[in-house]
Amino acid sequence: MEEINLLAEKLCAEHKLSVSEYEFLIKNRTDYVTEFLRQKAVDIRKSIYGNSVYIRGLIEFTNRCKNDCYYCGLRKSNLNCDRYRLEEKQIVACTDEGYELGYRTFVLQGGEDPFFSDEVLCSIIRKIKQNHPDCAVTLSVGERSEESYRALFEAGADRYLLRHETADELHYSKLHPEGMSFKNRMNCLSVLRKTGFAVGAGFMVGSPFQTEKELSEDLKFIETFQPEMCGIGPFIPHRETPFAREKSGSAELTCFLLSVIRIIKPNILLPATTALATLIPDGRERGILSGANVVMPNLSPLAVRKKYELYNNKVCTGEESARCRVCADKRMQSIGYQIVVDRGDMKSF
Ligand code: SAH
Ligand code: SF4
Fold first, then answer.
1. How far apart are CA 90 and CA 86, in angstroms?
2. Which residues have C-beta within 8 Å of that of residue 320, sequence separation ≥ 6?
3. Which ranges constitute the DSSP H helices of 178-320?
């Protein structure tokens, strides 16, 4: 049998490969291998999660950011970004609306905005948990100190998303200005884990300077770090960044990597991301059909949606939260899956 087919079978049997084997797999994938791994990934996710899809209500509560990541539309050097920051009561109101819509996880995501000190964030977390003790709170607010992570966890936050962005130190330095470091990013992930959070890592597919080599390091990192969650989506340029003229990542490769990651860690919580849905109209469906088991519809107030522009033409910025919820339901039903009202914690297997 061809080497590539044997490698795909090895991945399914062992849930791991060497970095050079991952690289070979990505470079030499055929339609046959892609479909083979996709079906394996779907079988695995069905054996653990059935046809359930978990939803997370995404609240983009500030687009202010002190960082200057080269890829991101919220970077501080983008002076054409109309900045906003939601107040505690607006954030809490989003979760109340979300609860009615069947969400049992709220993801608070934002730029690194110093206004949201530990005191301010902890108060918001406590309020949400007080109103909705049966819900999980996920934070996605970047790099903070160990002490800060501990305070947020003790206030009741359950999970933390911090994409590693790339597992290659040199590549990391090409995506970020001096002052942001790969070592600190990786250290934050370890600290988050130690603190007690369920941790989400992840990366962009097709970011500038990325080759199959960097992607295979990302896969090795997922395999060894074993995050509870992994967010991957295609890179999409933003017109007001240094990467404005770079190409978008590939939806096909993103879906392939979703299948591979599902096989590497069978019970991982794996979203079909908004970036994938921005690149192709049926991105959420394609993501789920490649092995993802989470979708994250937008719960932010309509008035701020368009302002949280990480990349060009981000979808779902013109719809009321209730409509996003219905849309997600329809999309999942159309492919034989079912959104469930559940915190959606990682299952053991
Ligand atoms: N400030 C936080 C959370 C907001 S950014 C943080 O950086 O962790 C959330 C994610 O959006 C980032 O981790 C990055 O992977 C993704 N992102 C940013 N710009 C993007 C772009 N141009 N294309 C695709 N994804 C992007
Ligand atoms: Fe800020 Fe996050 Fe964007 Fe970087 S990716 S500029 S930290 S919002």
1. 6
2. 302
3. 182-195, 212-225, 251-264, 274-279, 283-289, 302-305
Q: Is any atom of ligand 2 closer than 6 Å to the C-beta of 175?
A: no
Q: How far is the CA of 113 from the centre of ligand 2 (A)?
A: 10
Ligand 2 centroid distance, CA of 143 (Å): 10
Give the count of beta carbons closer than 10 Å to the beta carbon of residue 28.
13
pLDDT of residue 33: 98
> Residue 270 has which token pair?
């794996």
For ligand 1, what atom is nearest to the CA of residue 203? Answer: 15
Mutation probe of ligand 1 site: the residue of 152, 207, 310, 315 with most atoms within 8 A of C-beta: 310
Structure confidence at residue 180 (pLDDT): 97
Count the alpha carbons within 13 Å of 118 in the hemisphere toward its beta carbon.
14
221 alpha carbon – ligand 2 mean position (Å): 21
Measure the CA–CA gap between 47 and 69, rounded to whole angstroms.
39
Which ligand is the nearest neighbour of the Cα of 231? Answer: 1
- Hey, how many other C-beta atoms are within 10 angstroms of the C-beta on 9? 15
pLDDT at 349: 84
| Phi (first) and psi of residue 264, to 5 degrees | -60, -45
In short, whether 188's Cβ falls inside 6 Å of ligand 2 is no
Tokens for 277? 């849905």
**Mean pLDDT (10-residue bins), the chain, 349 residues:** 94 98 98 98 98 98 98 98 98 98 98 98 98 98 98 99 98 98 98 98 98 98 98 98 98 99 98 98 98 98 97 94 95 98 96
